[in-house]
Amino acid sequence: YVGRVSAEFNGKPDSLFFNDGVRRIDFILVYEDEDKKEFEKRHTFQRRREYFEASLMKMGMELEATKSVVDEKLLFVKVHMPWDVLCTYAEVLHIKVPLQPNDLTSHYSPWRIFSCITKHFQPNEELIGKESDFFTAPFEKERQGYFHIKDKDLFFTPSMRSKMAFYILTRAPYEIRGNVKKFGITKLLNSGVYKAAYPLHDCRFNVKSKEPDCPNERYLLYNEWAHPKSFYKMQPLDLIRKYYGEKIGIYFAWLGFYTTMLALAAVVGLACFIYGYKTQETSTWSKEVCDPEIGGQIVMCPQCDHFCQYWRLNSTCEASKKLCIFDNYGTLVFAVFMSVWVTLFLEFWKRYQAELEYEWDTVEFLEQEELPRPEYEAKCIYERKNPITGVKEKIPYTTCGRCVRVSIGIGTVLFWIMLILASVVAITVYRLAVFFAFSTSLRTQGLKELEPIKEYVTPQMATSVTASLINFIAIMILNTVYERTDYENSLTLKMFLFQFVNYYSSCFYIAFAKGKAVGYPGKPVYLVGAYRNEECDPGGCMIELTTQLSIIMSGKAIWNNIQEVLLPWVKNLISRHCTRVTSENTIPRWEQDYRLQPVSKLGLFYEYLEMVIQFGFVTLFVASFPLAPVLALVNNLFEIRVDAWKMVTQFRRIVPEKAQDIGAWQPILQGVAILAVATNAMITAFTSDMIPRLVYYWSFSVYPYGSNTDHTMKGYINSSLSVFSTSDFSNASSPIDSFNISTCRYRDFRYPPGHPRQYEHNVYYWHVIAAKLAFIIVVEHIVYFTKFILSYMIPDVPYAVKEQIKREKYLTQVILHETNLKLVTKRLKPSDDDTADHTEMTESNEETDLDF
Hints:
single chain, alpha+beta, 3 domains, five-stranded mixed sheet, 26 helices, 19 strands, transmembrane helix, membrane, Anoct_dimer, Anoctamin, chloride channel activity
């Protein structure tokens, strides 16, 4: 094309420059020659490319085209931004650059005493040196002499240059028809005019570049961050930010901080698990269940109609022992600890995030500084008056149109949520059907043979495990088919709501719905008029909730890691196998990167979503599963390295983006943390058997079925089971084989047959309900008050960071603004009296600045 230079590959595969070795490549465009395509399509594509590249050159960019050394149909267009263009767009994008070295004394950290230990976990300082500390300010082209510029070629980093290049590419027009202007590389990629557009990696990840001007940052990131041998090292966050931009850097900073905080929660959770494991054999109520003279003599009522049979309580001996591991007083302590932990995590993250904001120059990064997307600008066809500036501005929708779009979005989310709830109902029906089938298959002629087929496989356990596996599969399928939108801002809350219901609905059902409305054997409650509502095990639904959580958490972690590692690796392996040239020494840098996988614009969104859903499992249901932080910690140790490995080795370089924080995920995490206090209190009260045990422990002879004046747990099992007369069975619910049994037991607190108020809830039931409600209110208020105190005591921004921000603002004002004010004053050549007045005014201003 006119103005574009064509050049053959110069045989330097590691080169990051044009053929002249001087102009740096800031971006790569790839397209395919359409010789064999139909004439009209070929002509349209070529015309749009010519116009687009001409627009780029009018905007000051320089282009050089080179044919592929592998596929003759492919052409690579190298894009370079001259110094003047860089300066212009650095000012447009408010890019902060060094102003002068930081002259503030660094504050002493109390953690330095552990430096002799922590230094072994730091990246190699000889390879990855510490970044120089500068005060920075937004670049201004007319005042570039005041900035710390030593070398114009190195002043703007490659990530800054590629960000500015991408900004131009997204706004360069490629076609104008009448009053309609079409622009942006994104549309050209979607229509197939270009096959790819990406910035270059600086070298191969496993081989150091031989080019003298190459920083080899990708090679350093692989060896000190992404390589499995570096799994124990801290992340080189400054280098990650420098190479990939602030948005990627803040994600890995958050993930690393979250994983570090999980270590403390994992230690406490593991201690609670060990405590429960050690005490399972000594638990009084568990021993009563397993005792042949107690549990072996208690005949339980059938849990389904007609075909289910009576069964002995001691058949659930192993399940009751497992339940003791997770349902004990240590779990209650751990639930309260996690409520405090999540507050500390969020508050300390805010402080750490404030430090990163200052170090990475995003303190004053506001939404109005980030110019709108070109695709958004193209939709802005309506006008309105800005209430702040009073200036007319373009907007994409009218108020009515916006309401319609919001309604459609809400309707879509509600539809998918209803679909998820329908799947939960379907799984519930499956539970009932399988439990019925499993129970009837165990029916025999003798009461002694009513034990499970195997010691460890009860109908409840078999139903729970298979239903959890099916539920996990349903979750994965619904995630795959869920409709995705174009941009993160419109997707975050909508997708989280979907995932929240998808992942947690079955857990909420087991924790707060299952076994809560079942009636009693003579008058059971039916689901959809056909199936008798399922009951919990005599020990409660806690063990089933634990099973559900462990299967979903483990399955989700394994599935995600397989997807993240295996799929891109297999795709790249196939690509390399199909390439005729096998030696990368003969392939230029831009073509090596082209063979890597493209980065999805929502890739980081799903990484956040995965971790936030995990955060929900760790906090919302931790009262039933103290090993959740342990599983999360192990998963995250792999997650950090897996994400690093695929980003460094399997994907093209990401276009750097600026970000001040983790965005919409921050309030979502805070919302989950607040909800976690309520869910854990309710799990302890309603799902766990802890409150009834405590009531029994402090009870006296006013309750039926015995007293507990000695304050022990002896006799609790007998106290927690009500009596039912088999003669009160209806014809529809009566079991086929009665074995001449006159009474059976069931889990509830009701008056026995023959009592004036038979089968009504007794006073023990109402005392337990009152104790549960009192427990929830007291625990919630104590924990929320503690969270409030901690939030108030821990400032969001460290004092040292506040000092540095004030110093930087002062220097920016003095160096850039007051210096220019003096120049303007000199040009005006005022009189002596005016000069005296101006001097007095300037001194007054300086005193004000110093006070500031």
